[in-house]
Amino acid sequence: MKKKRVLKAVACLTCAVALVGCVLGIYSLAVIFGTTTITLDTSKRYQTMEGFGASSAWIYQGLGKLEDEDFKNQAMEMLYGDSGLALNIFRYNIGAGGVEVDNYEDPVRGAETFFVADNFNGDYSVFADENNYDFENRDQAVIDTFERALSLGNIDKVVFFANSPHYLMTLNGKTHGENVYDNNLKEECYEAFSQYMLVIVNYLYENIVCKYDKDIEILISPVNEPQWKWGGKDATQEGCHYDPKQLAKFYDTFYYQLKKFNLAHSTKFEMDIFESGNYKMILSTRTKFNEYMTEFEKYEFFNDVTHISLHSYGAVTSVFYRELFADYMAKYYPNISVSMSEYCTLEWGLEPTLIGVDPTMAMGFKCAKVIMRDITMLNVTDWSWWLSIARGGYEDGLVYWLENEAGTQLLEVTKRYYVMKQFSNYIERGSVRISSEYSDFIGINGVECCAFKNPDDSITVIVINDSNKSHTVKLKGVSGYTTVKEVLTDDSVDWQVREYDFSGNVKVLPNSMMTFVLTK
């Protein structure tokens, strides 16, 4: 009897498995070859977008020195102009003077400083006096490219960020720690470093930014990736580690100095924290994201924090880490928004070409998924790539500045650049992400999407399809929209645009990234 019951159970289980397999098979065929749907719901709203950007770090110190004005203009147009990425966020690197004291293999990674070290007499109050800075002769190459970018008219936010305090304020007199994980900023210099940042930012705002638009939003980010080692004999760039307690105490000092400065100068500069190297809270670095947040909460400044910035290094396309972080923020800090202020793939290029990086859609898809998942899972309000311009050989640039065997200066891009534009040109500042439910809930056909209601009432739908199949997709919830602008990037085309009457369906091509802008 017992044997019969077991056989019967096995038979039932076999039938159930077969039935599930049959259902999944039918579902798969329907998804792959039939019409799927994206249901848009403008009543379900998430974050309001503030734009896209990239960093000026390092390479601008050389680029700005070129005599070829057209070449420099072309580079900035490719990044900040309407014909290029139309980025609206410029991240300006305030150097710590590593070029004066540190022997980095790549000299530009010890960035130039405006402060004149000969004016230091042992009294750190000199950092609060603008007369101790040389704004006429130092960092002029970066200012040159900064002005060219501002002149294009799309920049409405500038983030002034530092990788390290000035070397005169550090324990070892360098722009990186003597040992890994050293808290290199002297505690007695918390105020001086704050004033150093404020003096420089105020000069650049009054004398450079205001020439173009005094209403550009100004953020000051004095700390970058505090969890990382930033020290030892293998240090390759400016950087400063901060343990949670030290960082919280410094931010409290900086916040007080910032408030006092804004009151005295009628400025509206904002503090940006804390450029976290990643947002992992488990299986992570020596010090985890949440340990910093716990320390911040102990200080008054945290009561006024409305957003934090972080980097997606180490998370890549992981759904797990994003969901874990999103749940953490929703539970403990529901009123704090998130910026994704830096990312690159941290890979050496494999292609034996002049540019020396992967030009294919495979790399394009990897970057596209990071952007889309940061937007849809982390609800980031803005997204910035790391280096706007790089020199090749490493997967860290949007535009690559190269020189061929004949000595000709070149600007080259990869699919990563074209993928970025699929987002940056069609998600306006002020656009609100709306619900976009895709009917293939199992994810069989490799399609991901996000959607936005734009200030002009148009709707932008962005779709990634890294499968080898094309898909007909019905867009639901968009009655009244009559025209669609379709923008395509795939293996063979870049930003191919066509417009047509909208009948309710769109076709998503294989191995492609597509943006659809619906208008009435």
Report the span from N to C terminus.
70 Å
What string gives the helices and strands in order? HEEHHEHHEHEHEHEHEHEEEHEEEEEEEE
Shape: globular
Instruction: List the uncertain runs.
Output: 15-32
In terms of DSSP E residues, the strand content is 15-25%
Total count of strands: 19
Q: Residue share in helices?
A: 25-40%
Describe the biggest sheet?
A: 10 strands, mixed
Mean pLDDT: 92
Helical segment count = 11
Structural class: alpha/beta
Q: Supply Rg.
A: 25 Å
SSE topology:
Layout: H1 2-33, E1 35-48, E2 51-55, H2 60-63, H3 69-80, E3 89-93, H4 98-101, H5 140-150, E4 157-161, H6 190-207, E5 217-221, H7 244-265, E6 270-271, H8 289-296, E7 307-311, H9 319-332, E8 337-342, H10 361-377, E9 380-390, E10 397-403, E11 409-413, H11 415-424, E12 432-438, E13 447-453, E14 459-465, E15 471-476, E16 483-490, E17 496-501, E18 505-508, E19 512-519
Parallel strand pairs: 1-15, 2-3, 2-9, 3-4, 4-5, 5-6, 7-8, 8-9, 9-10
Antiparallel strand pairs: 1-12, 10-11, 12-13, 13-14, 14-19, 15-18, 16-17, 16-19
